[in-house]
């Protein structure tokens, strides 16, 4: 008959030898380990929805279809420029008139059918803010902001579309976009001081 091994009594590493247990902060890791192929991700710090005292947690964020978050993750823009871009996107979404509905092929087609939706106060405020931003930016920068933030087109795709093939033209486009975000941050009070075109 084999001899039974005697088990050693182990002391957990968080308790000092011979003393009471030391309370440790609970740390929960909510970042994902399963990342799909061709994923473009970045770590982001957000407020913890499960926290009672407003703590922040680090989460994994997809930046594949979000050029603004991708630029923030690569430190190409700062937090004020990011917030200005998000605010522009929020106003752009609120200013949309009407709702998009899918066509149901099972229902009979009718002419008219619905009373047009009235314009809400939120839409009026959003349109007013976008008009103020357009006046500050000018037509070129407004178009640039609309293509990147409204259509969610990356700066490389936009440079290809506008036939900006040289590296110098692409660098200029990135500088111009960052300058436009800086102007938006100034319009909406997210940053103070003079706004200069940085190199």
Notable characteristics:
199 residues, mainly alpha, two-stranded antiparallel sheet, 2 strands, globular, disordered C terminus
Written description of the protein model:
This protein is mainly alpha-helical. The chain has a domain at 74-97 and 120-187. The chain contains 5 helices and 2 strands, in the order E-E-H-H-H-H-H. The chain has helices spanning 67-73, 79-94, 121-150, 155-161, 167-187; strands spanning 41-47, 56-62. Strands 1-2 form a two-stranded antiparallel ribbon. A hairpin with an 8-residue loop joins strand 1 and strand 2. It is globular and about 90 Å long. The protein starts with 40 loop residues before the first strand and ends in a 12-residue tail after the last helix. Mean pLDDT is 79; it is low at 193-199.
Annotation field: number of helices: 5
Q: What gross morphology would you assign?
A: globular
Point out poorly predicted stretches.
193-199
Tell me roughly what share of residues is in helical segments.
Answer: 40-55%
- Pattern of helices and strands: EEHHHHH
- What is the number of E strands? 2
Describe the largest sheet: 2 strands, antiparallel
SS content category? mainly alpha
Mean pLDDT: 79
Distance between the termini: 81 Å
Q: Which strand order spans the largest sheet, edge to edge or round the barrel?
A: 1-2
Brief overview:
The chain has 199 residues and is mainly α.
